[in-house]
Specification:
alpha+beta; 3 domains; six-stranded mixed beta sheet; three-stranded antiparallel beta sheet; 15 helices; about 45% helix; about 10% strand
């Protein structure tokens, strides 16, 4: 559900009218449920506000009048969204966004999946200055956040990070794999009779995307879902790649010249990596973020696209190494007996039911 507000003038963390935002949130959920938690979010929470550029984000959790009874129902619970931005226009720095997440959806589906925004909500209360509303019923959740996380899997974090840079052919993405193979074949000046099997291993390494580029048994390539036989001439492969890259190449080339890049999106990808690193190494997450200066530098475009791309790719690889070491028993995570300490699904539902009873 989405709605629009009148203009809110307070734009910085220190100037917001907390009582006004809390009242607006309670009015927003009136008739639909009970407001449980509300916090300043985004750059206010992370410590990355860029005055004159950052809008104001507010996020929270509410208890819907009707409870979900299974995962499918929880996934269908509607989040509530309100914004001062007109229509579908991009937010200006004077705009405010508010997003409220249903309790069962947050605890029973989003957190187990490793949703990045859900993770931020779980640790947001450590930045007490950002907390606007906190119902006592949620104290048990915020007191033991590791019980609600699945740190053993990095799939959601990887998907989130690559999604932020997918449009630019970021390494690890489908477009990124296509672009790297195409670029090499175009620039390599290979002999006309060169077959794909002669260079398949090199192309797989260049693609940096095992999900989208792998070697087939006959020495060919499975590239972005299309199989190219090992005996295929590389000139023909180059021709085949022109179609899926049509409409994307100009934007990807521009990014490598640091033009037309959504630096804010890329800063979110780096942030997600840093947050996972902190959780895996310390067992906690602190706001404002320790990496906030790095994130602001990215938001302001002070790093090259290639530098930021490497931060994301290398960071994701480092996270996988950490998790592999834990699974192999060669690393113990600080504060964690093992990376799978979260409550079982049945226990998560029980927590939600207990919260409902305490609010009735």
């Amino acid at each position: 559900m989405s709605t629009a507000w009148g203009s809110i003038q307070e734009a910085s963390c220190g100037e917001v009218n907390a009582a006004d935002l809390a009242a607006r949130a309670r009015d927003f959920v009136a008739g639909q449920g009970t407001l449980l938690f509300l916090t300043l979010f985004g750059s206010s929470l992370y410590g990355t506000r860029w005055e004159g550029h950052s809008d104001l984000d507010v996020r929270g959790v509410f208890l819907p009048r009707v409870s979900a009874t299974c995962r499918e129902e929880a996934d269908r619970q509607k989040c509530l969204h309100a914004s001062t931005a007109p229509g579908r226009q991009r937010n200006a720095h004077t705009d405010t966004d508010m997003d409220l997440v249903p309790l069962e959806r947050w605890i029973c589906t989003m957190l187990p999946r490793g949703d990045t925004g859900a993770l931020d909500l779980l640790y947001a209360p450590v930045h007490a200055a950002c907390t606007l509303v906190l119902h006592p019923a949620l104290h048990r959740v915020f007191a033991a956040p590791l019980h609600f996380l699945n740190l053993a899997s990095g799939a959601a974090c990887r998907s989130y990070c690559l999604g932020q840079g997918n449009t630019y052919g970021l390494a690890g993405t489908r477009l990124g794999a296509l672009y790297r193979v195409y670029h090499f074949l175009q620039e390599a000046s290979l002999p006309p009779e060169t077959r794909l099997r002669d260079i398949a291993d090199k192309l797989v390494a260049l693609a940096q995307a095992p999900d989208y580029c792998s070697r087939t048994e006959d020495g060919g390539l499975l590239l972005a879902g299309q199989e190219h036989m090992g005996l295929t001439k590389t000139a023909l492969v180059l021709e085949r790649l022109e179609r899926p890259l049509r409409g994307h190449m100009e934007r990807m080339e521009a990014a490598r010249r640091n033009e037309g890049v959504d630096w804010k999106a890329l800063s979110h990808a780096v942030r997600a990596v840093r947050q996972q690193e902190e959780l895996l190494l310390t067992g906690k997450l602190v706001y404002p973020l320790a990496c906030r200066e790095e994130l602001v530098a990215i938001k302001q475009g002070r790093l090259d696209f290639a530098e930021v791309e490497q931060l994301i790719v290398a960071g994701l690889a480092r996270l996988e190494t950490l998790r592999a070491e834990v699974r192999a028993g060669t690393r113990t995570l600080a504060g964690l007996p093992n990376p799978e300490v979260r409550l079982a699904d049945a226990a998560l539902w029980q927590v939600c039911q207990e919260i409902r009873r305490s609010c009735s």
